[in-house]
Amino acid sequence: MILGLYKKKNIKEIMTRFNAWNVFKNGLNGQTGWSRQWRDPEPKENYEVVIVGGGLHGLATAYYLAKNHNIKKIAVLEKGWIGGGNAGRNTTIVRSNYMMPGNREFYEHSLKLWENLSHDLNYNVMFSQRAHVVLLHSPGAIDAFARRYNIMKLTGSDGELWNLDKLKRKIPHLNYDNVRFPILGAIVQPRAGNARHDSAAWGYARAADSLGVDILQNCEVTGVTRKNGSIESLQTSRGIIKGKKIGFAVAGHTSVLWQMAGLGNLPIESHKLQAFVTEAIKPLLDCVLIYGPAGAAHFYISQSDKGSMVFGGELDWYKSYAQRGNLPTVKENGECAMAIMPCLGKLRLLRHWAGVMDMSMDGSFFMCKTPIANLYLNAGWNYGGFKASPASGWYFADLIANERPHKIIENHNLERFEKGINLDERGIGPDPKMHG
Ligand SMILES: Cc1cc2nc3c(=O)[nH]c(=O)nc-3n(C[C@H](O)[C@H](O)[C@H](O)COP(=O)(O)OP(=O)(O)OC[C@H]3O[C@@H](n4cnc5c(N)ncnc54)[C@H](O)[C@@H]3O)c2cc1C
To answer: How many CA atoms lie within 13 A of 228 on its CB side?
Structure first.
């Protein structure tokens, strides 16, 4: 029987899988036994499905289209290199503390997919469930978060409310005495944490490629030709490419592609968000920490496996497609870091950068059909789309394959505002830059 299985499987794939034996063997032969992680194919003229955008959402969609729906001819078109957009620029926080119908089930499913992703992809995405700890600064915040986390617990997720004593025992080295906003306790999701963003992109790419998906890098979509209410072809920097079905998963550039397709305005604004990394230090923080009442300040920090402190905060507050940030935001984030952990003051900042966020009017995403018959939209991830990547790929693939939205995403469409369906987790209103 084992021999039969071996015959069925591609022997080369078995030999290059990541497992203890192959890692040991390649350790002895100077790591010369590995093959390319994914192919570099020439574009074909026709595909069953073409996904535009080689970020995490595009790659995950291609993988689940092939794996869950057995679709054969799939291409992912990426204008630069895969994972060079927001996929490789985020602060890697994975959590499922959402409350609104649809969002609740979607992000919980995503967290469950993360929990098994390294095994599923045979690629270590370094998912570390180190807990997501939100500091609470007022009795109102305690009530609001207790309600949210009770809803989570009642719907199959996890959550804990820590009082100040417990918080001080768990994270003793915060600035409890002179911090800008008083700390009364914390709300915690123990199963949340971080993953390695590049690994997730490479893992999805490798797994999708092994199922026959063509990953076409340096392939920018520059034009869209329509015929009889459908997209006939895409003009790209590598020639004309046709797909029976087309999916847009281009995050901060969704409006650009939308207008290329001859459609009007989207309820999305592109804003930039910065991230910061310090030099590496010994272990200091073993969770993801969130500080500051949203609206007054918003700051998140964790420690990477290499030891660097990784942090970020609010948007840069103006619309832009630039992948670099402005100095007042650097100052604001530095102040937040110093306010909550003054011991960081001596650290040198190594790098900071920005990504282009697709901010929607209510802070929730769109995954839906469009006015063009064969075009599907995946967008509006605000600055929470990293954690969403597995479920985003799962449900977008399901939408494209079955040509109808799954029940969980049935309200994540462009018509929800005119129907009065509001998926505003923060309760802040139709101001895209306020959502996160
Ligand atoms: C600083 C920062 C911190 C963040 N922190 C978190 C976090 O902690 N947790 C979390 O859950 N989320 C976080 N996010 C958000 C998350 O990174 C994004 O929501 C998510 O990555 C978006 O999906 P994506 O990976 O598919 O996007 P992208 O990686 O941006 O993929 C879109 C791709 O489309 C390509 N593209 C664009 N135009 C074209 C074209 N014309 N032709 C071909 N290709 C094109 C781009 O090059 C890009 O690679 C953060 C984002 C940033 C910038």
So the answer is: 1
Contacts of 195 (CB under 8 A, 6+ apart): 92, 94, 114, 117, 125, 126, 127, 128, 386
Taken in order 429, 430, 433, 435, the sign of the CA dihedral is: positive
Residue 77 alpha carbon, nearest atom of ligand 1: 43
Whether 93 is in the pocket of ligand 1, judged by its Cβ within 6 Å, is: yes
Rounded CA separation 425/103 (Å): 9
Gap between the Cα atoms of 37 and 296, Å rounded:
45
- Name residue 193's amino acid: G
Our CA angle for 213, 51, 385, nearest 5°, is: 110
Q: Which residues pair with 270 in a beta bridge?
A: 358
Report d(CA 107, CA 123) in Å as an integer: 22
Q: What is the pLDDT of residues 226-267, one digit of tens each?
A: 999 999 999 999 999 999 999 999 999 999 999 999 999 999
Give the separation between CA 188 and CA 133, rounded to whole angstroms: 5
Q: Ligand 1: does its nearest atom lie under 6 Å from the Cβ of 411?
A: no
User: Ligand 1 within 6 A of 263 CB?
Assistant: no
Run of H or E including 308: strand 308-319
Atom from ligand 1 closest to the CA of residue 56? 25
Query: Could you tell me the pTM of the whole model?
Result: 0.96
The amino acid at 163: N
